Amino acid sequence: MNRKCPGGYRGRFAPSPTGPLHFGSLVAAVGSYLDAKSQSGEWLLRIEDVDTPRNAPGAAAAILRTLENFGFEWDGPVLWQSQRLKAYAAALDHLRESGLAYPCACSRKEIADSATHPAIDGGLAYPGTCRAGLPPGRAARAWRLRVQDEETAFTDRLQGRQAQRLARDVGDFVLRRADGLFAYQLAVVVDDAWQGVTDIVRGADLLLSTPRQIGLQSCLGYPPPRYAHLPVATNAAGEKLSKQTRAPALDERRAAAELVRALSFLGQKPPPELALEQPAAVWLWARRHWDFAAVPRQPFIGLAACPPPSPHPPPTAFAHSR
Ligand SMILES: [Zn+2]
């Protein structure tokens, strides 16, 4: 894998194999794919299977098959996080040697008892109990990043300027968990840098994680990529589509129709009759007409506003309110 992509665009799609792809994952795949292709960029595929207890048997193979049947073409071999543990360990070693990572003995209950305020994305901000060293007689359970008490900011191509004070909004966050697994935040940052990813286009449900990733990039000396956080599809209850909210799996027999629906969700105006064609016809249209400026800028959009295309499509394409 080339670590550098001089002057070029390199994007990626990075699903977790916790279940089959659903409409929400398709929106992220379509958005990242077309943003890359419209800039003559590469589009990489990474399977984020580092959180092994959450992996569903057969899900990774099903995801690859679905992407193929929907007509996605990725560049280079698929990267599997489960085969990258040495790289994550090396990054953690580097942070330890620089004094930026420290061991933490706290149990979940101890943190719950000592935390003073919630973290910005749920859970509790770590109160820093082990920051100055492990309490006497206690053993390390997890490893945490020592975050700086300063603003971490970036400008998202869709969501605008974002800023957090990691020390207040998250606290020193976990790099290696008590169960020995590397944390998502570390794995994603190490892989994006190693793969030379220049542009991260993904769902806005990850917007609040981004300052943590930028903080880690800075600690590890990696160049920051550009970010665009796409609107996330929510169900009638306002929940993000996911395995937990029982989002239905994508139907490969209706691939063209689902692609048309994803394009409409992303503010594009595909001719509705494309839903009756093969996926290749949808891609031909989409690669010619992709308009990033038309992508809605709100982080969440109810799916009810973008129903599945009917076999007899309405005469006018759905248009988003902005
Ligand atoms: Zn601790």
Write up what this structure looks like.
This protein is an alpha/beta fold and 322 residues long. The protein folds into 2 domains: 10-82 and 194-206 and 224-305, HUPs (Rossmann fold); 85-189, HUPs (Rossmann fold, 3-Layer(aba) Sandwich). Helices cover 29% and strands 16% of the residues. The strands form 5 sheets. Strands 1-2-3 form a 3-stranded parallel sheet, with helices on one face. Strand 1, helix 1 (23-37) and strand 2 form a beta-alpha-beta unit. Helix 1 (23-37) packs across helix 8 (255-265) and helix 8 runs parallel beside helix 9. The protein is elongated, with a radius of gyration of 21 Å. The model is unreliable at 313-322 (pLDDT under 50). Zinc ion binds at residues 104-106, 129-130.
